[in-house]
Design goal:
The structure is a homotetramer. The first copy, chain A, has helices at about 65, 170-185, 225-230, 300-305, 350-365, 375-385, 450-455; strands at about 5-10, 35-40, 45-50, 75-85, 95-105, 110-115, 135-140, 145-150, 155, 160-165, 235-240, 240, 255-260, 265-270, 280-285, 290-300, 320-325, 335-340, 385-390, 400-405, 435. By secondary structure, chain A is an alpha+beta fold. Chain A has a 6-stranded mixed beta sheet, with no helix packed on it. Chain A has a 6-stranded mixed beta sheet with strand order 2-4-14-10-12-11, with no helix packed on it. Chains A, B, C, D: InterPro entries: FmdA_AmdA, FormamaseFmdA.
């Protein structure tokens, strides 16, 4: 008989700093970060994680902590976990590691989360040219539901998931990451596809010893400097999974990860109580500390059997996953469209990112008519269970993206109707999120057609 | 009492050419194309449409018709329909036109459809650099289900929708379209965000009198040449809706269109029996002739009340819509990820189009292991009810797109499992789609990591 | 290549009487009713049906037609259809007939339906002791939606299905039916389990030549009198399927019928635009004329392989079916409970019928607080897509039944909230259904606790 | 700011006996059982519960504990909880108590459950005449999923819910319960509607001091004997909610309970990891210890505003509830039908209980063809998320009940197909549940048609 209670593999105390934890988390990817725990296939084990910034953000009504967040100190990951089979043979490069997410939740005693946008000069967000200030909303959880004193009038069931989960890269894969991201940064904005449309900067985050935490690797030891200088940042998703921020990696989901190093060295963190497709505000899910109960299997040789690499090397692969049967069911949706014409009226060619930006902007303007501030809606669309779709990607020159929002999360009917949105006493205003000043000098994107209206 | 049977407003005979129809369709957008019919708000009326190419594609086993399709002759739209209220006052610019799609279906006696990819030198598709040949699959309908002799082993419930529906542009809006699209074409590939990654050409389709059909406008009359020379092509979705190819505009859906000209002048066509998000193969839904049963309402002044323009003018708006309660329900999904690194390994900055291309390529390679050709899967992913999501759009430098495919549409279990995909006698091959040769000279994108494998 | 358009197998004209139809329907079950059509497995064919009473009910505002309906003249079934395989071998007793319901809909030109309760002395209904009068509501269809001038303020998507579909009985099975139903009638109310609780009478409908219509059997021929004297009535569902009134036998569903006679002799009718579980008002779905597009397969020997008879003979079997993926999706439900204590306060033992009666009564009383008459809600709960569940069937002495109603079908919020249901100007009354007088002498069931209130 | 962590209101230790718990549970209903805790409306609080038999059943492979279970010692309920509003005013008779089930789960460290059937002479079950032996299956939980070593080859997502939750009865209501249940017992089997069809005995469980546990009421005090002699047993659901065993009272659900005593005195227990509609095997859900996180509101005067009593007194009411958005989604179902003809072939009149018994029997016989024992399927249908529907309740003389089973819970395809169910090496047998002998003398119901087959 297997044990009937999840094995408590990694514990975290959300009241302590990352470096005070018993099994120290890590915030970089590198093959030489040593495993802190080991599991066998078929074990049901429990991993606790701290929030992605390691406690930098507080449950209060000021956005100063968001404004001054230190992004070199993230994401704090629990692991690596070494996986072996029942015979004790570890996962091997070329295998697939099957990770079943059996249960997920906030850490008991720490049932809250935050959503924010970063200051434009310190990370930004999808719409940072429109919303350059740092903002914050705090969420409390009533079991499956989240609500916020900063965005009253909405409540929704969370689709809890790890924003970040993945296997360790091999040295070769790490080299590929560092090379291609450095090339992007060095080429600069002018060489990017979207440099003039999206304004989150830097273009990529290169290895940075400052703020690095390497788990069980001895900070005083001989390897630390080398590893910290090479280790990849955790911000983007990559071939190993990583920070994919896929909201459907939720309870009951099964993920198939490629294995690049012996033991697979699985790490995870950045738990989200809920997130919208795209996580548009960047610090954009309901970020929390949390736990995962997990089972692993190994498909020997599965990487070659199932994943066809596409690119210069055999390492250019992608994970895949199966969605579980327990998503929240909403039946009525309001959907906003966007096409790949930017805010200046300029036509882009089949650019889904531009199209999605337009859909999100349209949704914000629309919903703000119901008593919310635009900043509230921006955060809401980042963390509620909305769906972002690539609806049309072939009809030159316009990509069409859509953003679908479940109507039932609002305590009022937000559908269009004769007579227009509520006005006068029917319009209930609803406070605001916490906001900091933007002290930088970059220009805010202006809605040109509204300028004339001001005259 | 209202009449209890839909008013047969516009009839089409799929066996006749577009110009032989009683109420002639049109294949360009222009405010001067005269209405062919008029309805009152609250009427339930029925509009028939012919397939988007007006009968150029045949139910046979050759892709030659796809290869040589004349794209100046599309999309054939039924309408315009002038909408007035119960007092006889027509819709006015600034109103919202509410269009409820009460019922949709194929034309009786013509229950079939086609999916294809165009030749790279005649339209291409999302993956035309990988699949430059014209291909075709024919689908027959068993009521709600579609199946194809060219892609045996799959069957799915359709989510019937009009690929194209929208209101007529005003002269000002038309001018905006023509200006911005011309600017794109004139700037050329080098100035585009995605010119080096997507290879569908031309970048945009500018007004073109050749092939133009202008409905009830007299081809011998004085206005024809001017209108045909100015009228916008129907390929992209725009501020008026148009060819948005949104698969969820299905039975029970309610769309809110901005009104730009008196009467709204609603047109529609390009009926799809089913489509996947993105419609990746371009001729990519299950294209068919079909009918729509529709009800309209007018929200007076609703455009200003509900839609905030974003851009240089007040006309830069977007439609929105509500999804109905009758989508096919699938509960198990296999999901593929893509990041914004292209096939050469080059890093792009938050480009969702690149990321989605990678997700689609990964899905094709994966599913082809189950006895299908890659061309079959390419067409299948274009027309089955798969979902394309913008999962992460803020984690520099990688956008993450996902493609979710319902498992139940296959007659075999396509999930990964120990032992790998079927081989030997367990692997059932399943014919192929109709294929033409690609006679052009543009290079096919090579999967570099597989080249070495050939040596 | 198979034909791509459904074979028009049986046509019906809803404007003509049953006996004026080209292929005459039948309204009794008997093995000697000859097939009127033949199909081959794999054919997609179309069957039209007239409404179950054969046109006795009119689209008007009087319930007199319902009150005086002749129940010896129902249900009018299209068929029998003889099914053979590709080699021409007909279905054999012991096979399973697989019937896929590919598409369903109202008859074009006849898009309306009716819901009613019968007079207590002429058929009654589940709550006939509370509602003895005949009532009627007329429904019109906007594509997938139904709405009624007699029950304003509700609108819902239909789940179209045949109330009645089944294979012909063998002589042995017919004998079993007639014997057991006659035994029930002869034993009388006192011998029944529920005689004192349910008041629909007679207890069963025995063979009755009056009103009988036997399809292609010559009314002047020698067999007619014998067959009409033996043939089973169509009211109940039985081993052959029949009038099961299962609302989920809808588009995309696959039913497995036992075959009792050579050729299977499949018949169908009683099309419903929508129905609630239980069809409580008896004439209780949205009754309409309609069409079915169907495909058949034969599982040779499947009856023995898959169905275990339970009872005195090998013929005591039950059909089974698979639900399709296209049900309307509602996500929010209001649920009423009932236990097996009757209206007098008497305790019954695990009686789900009593419990369901209580749940339905509770739902009627509740919803009537929102401006509807109880008669309107009674008809609504009979025909909207509500779900009746056997929640608990073991906790002596109470069975618990629940009735779940989708909230989104109402144009007001019917959930409980502080302050109570609408009163004064907020309470909108909504007319009534058509009602006839009850001229009989049977006592209406009194809600005893409300009597005192009247004093 | 409200506290962000649930208030730990009632704690239970599943390793201790009921009488060793700090806040003692109770296993009877009586107005004089004193509250053990108090909450304010709006509080989020956590209640732990022990399993319904208070630890009588063990995690082993013998059914002896089930066979000899003491049913006078159940269900152990946590509470009563007194509810007051923010001003300190307690809930009053005539109010509605709104209970939101925010989160539910097994008790940490005790993640297992059991399903069983009782011996026919000690409680029985819905099919006890077919399955008189006590049986047991043990389930372990992998997060949202349950699986059992006693029923290999199935795994499903749980819909966790309290089988039993309700408010305390007033003295008048308690009297009504005791009177009507005593009348049933005294009238005896012959007077029941279903005495000859269902064989669970006794017909009802009358007050019984033996085994009674009355929470905080002093067992040595003067009131104990009186209260224990009057207090109602917890087996059935009643006007106060109670043991309704409604599987949809799950996460996110909101229940509206009538209040009969000051403070409402809410109690709960009998947590189920999963249950099928009907809970047919009686000890039939996956029974476990568990926790609930709950919020209460009071609707003042809501009982009169929203609940219409039906019966001799104003106390004859029923709770209602709203279903939450987080049910497991299954899209493919296999459905079995039953009509109200019993196993002897006798016709009953519109009896849904008989019809459901036939549907369950049909499902057991069918699924047992796939390598399971009938006992395994009986337990499975009692605890997996299957749906029992009252499909037709008006078509004399047959009620039609249906039982829908989600196909995806099996690791094999259980749909009918050509060639029949697996045989020979394709048929995988799967052990059995734990079974005890039935030592009683009551006759097992024989499937008459199979007897002849033995000759």
């Amino acid at each position: 008989m297997p044990p009937r209670t999840p094995i408590p593999l990694i514990k975290m105390d959300p009241k302590k700093a990352p470096w005070e934890q018993e099994l120290k988390p890590h915030n970089r990817w590198h093959p030489d970060i040593p495993p802190v725990a080991e599991v066998q296939t078929g074990d049901l084990f429990r991993v606790e994680t701290i929030d992605w910034t390691g406690g930098q953000i507080r449950d209060d009504d000021s956005a100063e902590d968001i404004k001054h967040v230190d992004l070199t100190r993230c994401h704090y990951l629990s692991g690596p976990i070494r996986v072996k089979d029942a015979e004790g043979v570890p996962a091997q490069p070329g295998d697939l590691l099957v990770v079943e997410l059996c249960n997920l939740g906030p850490l008991p005693g720490d049932e809250w989360g935050y959503t924010g946008t970063f200051d434009r000069d310190n990370g930004g967000g999808f719409l940072t040219d429109h919303f350059p200030e740092a903002t914050k909303a705090i969420w409390y959880f009533d079991g499956i539901y989240a609500s916020s004193r900063h965005i009253p009038g909405v409540r929704f069931a969370g689709l809890i998931h790890p924003g970040l989960i993945g296997t360790a890269p091999s040295p070769e894969l790490l080299q590929i990451w560092n090379d291609r991201e450095r090339a992007l940064v060095e080429a600069g904005e002018g060489a990017t596809t979207l440099g003039g449309v999206l304004h989150t900067r830097p273009l990529a985050l290169l290895p940075e010893p400052k703020g690095a935490m390497l788990g069980a690797l001895d900070p005083e030891g001989p390897a630390w400097s080398r590893v910290a200088g090479e280790a990849a940042r955790t911000i983007p998703g990559r071939e190993n999974g990583g920070n994919c921020d896929i909201k459907n990696l939720s309870r009951g989901c099964k993920v198939y990860f490629p294995v690049f190093v012996e033991g697979a060295n699985l790490s995870m963190g950045d738990m989200h109580f809920s997130q919208g497709d795209g996580e548009v505000s960047f610090c954009g899910a309901i970020e929390m500390s949390g736990f995962l109960e997990i089972k692993c299997e190994i498909l020997r040789g599965g990487m070659e059997q199932y994943l066809t690499p596409m690119g210069p090397t055999k390492l250019h692969v992608q994970p895949l996953f199966e969605i579980g049967p327990l998503e929240p069911r909403y039946s009525e949706w309001l959907v906003f469209e966007g096409i790949s014409v930017d805010e200046t009226g300029k036509q882009h060619y089949l650019d889904a990112t531009v199209a999605y930006k337009r859909a999100v902007l349209a949704a914000i303007d629309y919903l703000a008519k119901f008593g919310y501030t635009k900043r509230q809606i921006y955060l809401l669309l980042s963390c509620c269970p909305c769906e972002g779709r690539l609806s049309g990607i072939v009809d030159v020159p316009n990509a069409v993206a859509t953003l679908a929002i479940p109507i039932a999360i609002f305590d009022q009917d937000v559908r269009p109707k004769a007579g227009g949105p509520p006005v006068g006493p029917r319009l209930i205003t609803r406070g605001d999120v916490a906001v900091s000043t933007y002290d930088g000098t970059k220009p805010r994107t202006i809605n040109m057609c509204m300028c004339g209206a001001a005259h």
